[in-house]
Each structure stands twice: as C-alpha cells, then as structure tokens.
Amino acid sequence: MRIKICGITRVEDGLAAARAGADAIGLVFAPSPRRVERARALEIAAALPPFVGTVALFVNPTHNEVQTVIDELRPGLLQFHGEEEPAFCAAFGLPWLKAARVRPGVDLLQFAVRFAGANGLLLDAWSPAAQGGTGERFDWGLIPAGLARPVILAGGLTPANVAAAVRAVRPWAVDVSSGVEATPGIKDAAKIVAFIKEARNADA
Fold this sequence. Notes:
By secondary structure, the chain is of the alpha/beta class. The protein has helices at 11-20, 38-47, 63-73, 86-89, 108-114, 162-169, 189-203; strands at residues 2-5, 24-28, 53-58, 77-80, 96-102, 120-125, 151-153, 173-176, 181-183, 186-187. Strands 1-2-3-4-5-6-7-8 form an 8-stranded parallel beta barrel, surrounded by 5 helices. It has a two-stranded antiparallel ribbon with strand order 9-10. Helix 1 (11-20) packs parallel to helix 2, helix 1 (11-20) runs parallel beside helix 7 and helix 6 (162-169) runs parallel beside helix 7 (189-203).
C-alpha cells in the first residue's frame, strides 16, 4: 500500500514525510489554507530525496495553470478535485487521479466508468464547505466492491483511525492532510510518523 502526505507547504514538512516513509507528497495549487506558491513548491520538490513522488493538486484550473505547474515543477502525477471533465484531465500527458466526494447517492461505479482514463480514484468526504482537506470522513461502507480503478482513500484519516480504514477498505493508497497537522498547512512530524506506522502495520 502507498501513502501520500498532502498539503505540504514547507520544506521541513516535505522532508519529515520522506523520512517517515511516505511514498509521495501533495502540493496544492488551489484556494486552500494549504495552497503553495510555485516558487515554494519548487523548493520543496528540490529538497526531496529520490523515490518520493510529487503530486500537483488542482480544483477547476485553467489549462494554462496546469501546464505552467507541469513546466516548472515536473510533478509525477496530477490530482483533480473539482468538476473537471475526463478529456481535460487527460490532456497533459501525465498520469492523473480524479477525486470523488462520497456521500449517499453518489454512484461510484458510474464515476469509475466515466473516469476510466484515471490512474486511480481518490475517495474523499463530501462537504458543502470545501472540495477537500476538511478533516471529515465518510462511511467506508459506501465504497462498492469491484471499482474499475485503484482506490486512494482520503477524508478524515488520522493516526487513530487509519488502521481501521486500511483493514476495512484495503485501498491501493491512503492520503492524509489535516489529520497530521499542528495547524492548517503546518504538519506535525510526530503525527506523520504515527500515521505511517499505523497504516503500514495494518497493511501488513
């Protein structure tokens, strides 16, 4: 199972995630307490050791906004959290994830068919307040068996519940942001270590 620490805004937090064993970090290029400017994102990415990936996260961006980040940052993966169409997500020549905001009535099987070109589906909690990073979890029982794409589980994960989440869902990856923070946008290194330890132990 893979682990991504999202919403990194400081070099030291990116390094803390890498040292704790994260497979990837997420850099947010959308309105959020965790938004990072491109110059800072470049500093964070340049400081990472080998084999730790960078994921660029967008919410309803323009084509030029995404392309500029790609040209400057060279992320390994794109993540789309808004109402982006499949053709838009696929237009950049990079692997990509599509986020689904899960609540009763959302047909994830149909969503997976619609976004069949995605490398994975990131399942997050639906909230009227924001597109992601709310710290809210959803009912994991709403995830149907047999989704056509790999599942990246997000939404309200913390060191206290990630083991249960992994055992219940058996996702391809888990993704955490607010659950390992000291304050919005600032990570807590001890929480990152605890989260990754709990996730790995449950996966084993």
